């Protein structure tokens, strides 16, 4: 058996799993209603430990793929489980507070203003295209970095995204909100319509999203994490990605999936997660070094 090496993402997966299982045991009543969630979290912790102990990423790239990227699969699955724990602490949503705050701040809730004054099919398609990119950003970054054998970058990126997901999923049930498409449905005068990407996004949300979990926007948080990592390590791609991420953030509000407050909080969580990883978890990451390749000397970020 190889000597197991624990990466921050491994510890985050296990810590989140154990914490949620403990909180469910403490708060979940009746406990029988949370049997599936408990089994899932205990199973996720066990799977993580087994992978760390028995999958040697130095043996070959197939094993490295499993060893490095399994946290991404588990945290994607964690999202679905949040639907069953939305009312772990409270028995109602807090949308009324968010709407009251935004009306006090802006004079009108932003999605209602868009509905009344700005709704446009062309803009909807552009922003839906950007929003749909979220489903490609997370796996796309990981696969691209894996193909380039930038394993250090993968470990950093997964640490930042796992922190973002963990905090977001905790807030889902600490401050449950169902989002404007549910809470304000009776106040909209128009449907948000688009011929292609709007329909694709709606299809994904209808089949994969959970009701609740609007605060914060984990989509915005993870998209910002991806953008910041691209600016540090893949600058050329970052400039192409910048308008997509901006459109994605705006699209969460335009499409009525999130309040503007959700998007701002999600972005703050993502930025804070990146800061924590680069300053506290992997200090000194992104430093430059020179190395020879193909007979020439060039400078590249340390992977």
Which labels suit this protein?
13 helices; single chain; 2 domains; 303 residues; Vanadium-containing Chloroperoxidase, domain 1; globular; mainly alpha; 2 strands
Description of the molecule:
The chain has 303 residues and is mainly α. It folds into two domains: 1-85; 91-301, Vanadium-containing Chloroperoxidase, domain 1 (Up-down Bundle), CATH 1.20.144. The chain is built from 13 helices and two strands, in the order H-H-H-H-H-H-H-H-H-H-H-H-H-E-E. It has helices at 8-27, 35-54, 61-81, 95-106, 110-117, 121-132, 134-147, 151-174, 180-183, 197-208, 218-233, 235-254, 260-281, and strands at residues 288-293, 296-301. A two-stranded antiparallel ribbon has the order 1-2. The longest helix has 24 residues, at 151-174.
């Amino acid at each position: 058996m190889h000597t197991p090496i624990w990466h921050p993402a491994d510890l985050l997966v296990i810590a989140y799993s154990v914490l949620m299982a403990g909180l469910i045991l403490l708060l979940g009543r009746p406990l029988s209603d949370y049997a599936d969630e408990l089994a899932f979290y205990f199973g996720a912790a066990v799977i993580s430990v087994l992978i760390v102990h028995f999958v040697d990423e130095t043996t070959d790239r197939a094993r490295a793929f499993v060893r490095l990227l399994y946290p991404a699969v588990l945290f994607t699955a964690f999202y679905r489980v949040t639907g069953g724990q939305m009312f772990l602490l409270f028995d109602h949503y807090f949308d009324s507070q968010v709407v009251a705050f935004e009306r006090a701040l802006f004079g009108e809730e932003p999605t209602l203003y868009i509905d009344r004054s700005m709704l446009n099919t062309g803009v909807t398609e552009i922003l839906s295209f950007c929003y749909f990119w979220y489903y490609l950003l997370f796996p796309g970054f990981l696969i691209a970095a894996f193909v380039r054998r930038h394993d250090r970058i993968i470990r950093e990126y997964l640490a930042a995204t796992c922190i973002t997901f963990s905090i977001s999923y905790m807030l889902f049930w600490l401050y449950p909100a169902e989002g404007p498409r549910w809470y304000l449905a009776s106040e909209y005068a128009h449907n948000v319509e688009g011929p292609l990407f709007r329909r694709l996004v709606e299809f994904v949300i209808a089949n994969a999203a959970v009701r609740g979990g609007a605060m914060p926007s984990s989509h915005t948080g993870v998209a910002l994490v991806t953008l910041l990592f691209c600016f540090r390590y893949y600058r050329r791609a970052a400039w192409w990605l910048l308008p997509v991420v901006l459109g994605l953030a705006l699209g969460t509000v335009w499409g009525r999936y999130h309040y503007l407050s959700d998007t701002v909080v999600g972005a703050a969580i993502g930025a804070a997660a990146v800061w924590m990883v680069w300053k506290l978890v992997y200090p000194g990451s992104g430093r430059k070094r020179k190395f020879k390749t193909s007979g020439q000397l060039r400078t590249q970020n340390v992977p």
